[in-house]
Amino acid sequence: MPSAEPPKPARLTLVAGISALEGVALVAGGVLMLVMGLLGRPDSPQQAEMGGLTVIALGLIPLFAARGLLRRRSWSRGPALITQIIALPVAWTLLRSHGALIPAGIVLAVVAVTALYQLVRPATIEALGIRRPGTAPDADGADA
Predict the structure, then answer these.
(1) Of 56, 64, 78, which Cα lies nearest the Cα of 20?
(2) Which of 5, 45, 129, 139 is deepest in the core (most CB within 10 A)?
(3) Model pTM score
(4) Which among 74, 103, 105 has a CA at the least distance from the CA of 87?
């Protein structure tokens, strides 16, 4: 009888949720930029439209990472880490602005640091089936 897969750690669900939320926010922002480029009066409609398409494409990265994290795919950790690292300078920029953007910067910084912490924890790495450098393959000789 094959062994059942152990239950998914809550940290993977948390990080997947954070990545998905960031991805949805990026896609929504990209759609808004695209619509404003098409319907509004930007200085450069082509630049606004291309910017919107670029942000939509960038939003797909954390969405794919979230799906991979939920399915325990080891490749998903890299895009999730990169997304959080990129979020930190964005949060810093928001924190240095004025008004309502400061609380947004605080939230983004807390979310990014939380996700980074969870992604680098040994338990998360193990749950994704990632071997540490210098460790041997499984006892049966198969590479994980």
Answers:
(1) 64
(2) 45
(3) 0.80
(4) 105
